[in-house]
Amino acid sequence: MERVLLTLPLQRLKRSTLFVDVFSVKEFPKKLLLELLHSDFDILCTHPMFGPESASDGWTGLPFVFERVRILDEEHRVSRCEKFLNAFAREGCRMVEMSCEDHDRYAVGSQFITHTVGRILKGLMLESTPINTKGYESLLGLVENTARDSFDLYYGLFMFNKNSLEMLEKLDLAFEDLKKQLIARLHRGVRNQLIENGERLHQRDGSNSHALLRRAPNEFALLHSSFNDVALLSSFASNNSSQSDENTKLKIAIVGFGNFGQFLAKTIVSQGHEVWRILDQTTLMWLKSWGFRISATLKRSTLFVDVLSVKEFPRNLFLQHLPHDFDVLCTHPMFGPESGKNGWKNLPLVYDKVRIGNEKSRILRCYRFLDIFASEGCWMVEMSCAEHDRHAAGSQFVTHTTGRFLEKLGLKTTPINTNGYETLLSLVKNTVRDSFDLYYGLFLYNLNAMEQLERFDLAFESLKKQLFNRLHSIY
Asked: Of 75, 332, 410, 459, which alpha carbon lies 20 to 30 A from 220's?
């Protein structure tokens, strides 16, 4: 910009000429224009916050930021400035007048963050999966839009906005803080497990063998895994197997009845199935204290279904702790009370028929359970638990990680939100609806999650090196 201004034949221009910039940063060009242009020239600093892609369907509602830096008060000069602005207003732009300083302060909290996150995710080489969530689709769109812009543009956002370095440091600290939360919790969990194992060994050598037997970990693994609204048990409505074959309705016990358990129960009941037993945490803790095995009270053909966000871990628990004559179906409804509040149509239900007996009644029961979701319009995806976890680590865990570390920045809406920044705000809003326990579960119980966290870290470090290496070479 400086080179262009210095080579323009300014002496041949009318002294009333209007100069307009359309840069993505504002304070720097404003100072340059004031410094290099004679005071007789008019100056208007603008930022159309859209481009060929985001405005391919028109400019309606898209923000156009401007500051009348220097417009002399002659009528024809004021009129000319307004005519220029009206070229955007007539196209439906949202006209936002603010100082260049305010623009840069808001832009670093929206535009620079958006481009930074997009470039980090680009470094992960994200791909579409057979089980994309809406959140992951939005991240793929963000990466695609970011990748269209050159690194020079991103470097300009970093270099010429005085607020950018501080924001980059905040992003870095937020991600480091998230990692510390995960690792500290993991450390505590392993440490407590080692201590408990030591106590069990001590008890085994002592006289309290009866108490140890009642507290054996194998006794309660299923109960404990069911605390967070995560297990469903399904059986036929009648004890008579011949009658059951003709009955299309199921009796279903939901183990854990929090938000998600209630969300599922509402649809299950609306289809005419009977929710015949609900176990909450209090009941489960009572059963655990007496060393009671939930499987001991059930018919040997009972179908066990989980709805956890990870699949290999519960699959292995079921196969380890349930006798062979119980059926096992592992599922993951990849939606919840918020994303499924307007219906389940086209939302993915992933499932793996882990162990279903050969009898016709058991096969039919499995399909009847799956039909609860299919009849609501769910997109039914059959895949192995291992394949699910591999895809989920690259999509669901990455989505939650992005939302979680952005949450720590306390992002707020600005007067100049871009579409990309709106995507990030929505992602954070949806992420914080889930507990940290859920996010920690995605990390702890998916064998692929640690690798994804490390790749995220490396992608962030690589981006910072690109920026700092260019700074160093320029200097």
From this structure: 332
**CA dist., res. 119 & res. 459, Å (int):** 8
The string of DSSP letters for 353-372 reads EEE--SSHHHHHHHHHHHHH
Structure tokens at 255: 């183990």
The rounded distance, in Å, linking the Cα atoms of 471 and 465 is 10
Using a 10 angstrom Cβ sphere, with 0-12 exposed, 13-18 middle and 19 or more buried, the burial of residue 240 is: exposed
pTM of the entire predicted model: 0.82
d(CA 442, CA 401): 10
Q: What is the dihedral of CA 279, 283, 288, 294, to 10 degrees?
A: -30
Question: 71 — alpha (psi -120 to 50), left (phi > 0) or beta?
Answer: beta
Q: Which residues contact 333 (CB under 8 A, 6 or more apart)?
A: 264, 307, 340, 344, 347, 348, 349, 373, 378
For domain 216-383, the CATH class is alpha beta
Lowest mean per-residue pLDDT among 105-114, 273-282, 285-294, 408-417: 285-294
End-to-end CA distance of the chain: 19
**DSSP line for 83-103:** HHHHHHHTTT-EEEE--HHHH
The token pair that represents 13 in the structure block: 């221009």
**Interior/surface letters 251-267, b for 16+ CB within 10 angstroms, e for the rest:** bbbbbbbeebbebbbeb
| Residue at token pair 């919840």 | 336
**Sequence spans of domains, the chain:** 1-97, 216-383
Q: Domain 1-97 classified CATH 3.40.50.720?
A: yes
pLDDT digits (tens, 9 = 90+) for 425-474: 999 998 888 889 999 999 999 999 999 999 999 999 999 999 999 998 88
Close Cβ partners of 46 (under 8 Å, ≥ 6 residues apart): 20, 21, 22, 64, 65, 66, 67
pLDDT confidence of residue 212: 31
Per CATH, 1-97 and 216-383 having the same topology is answered yes
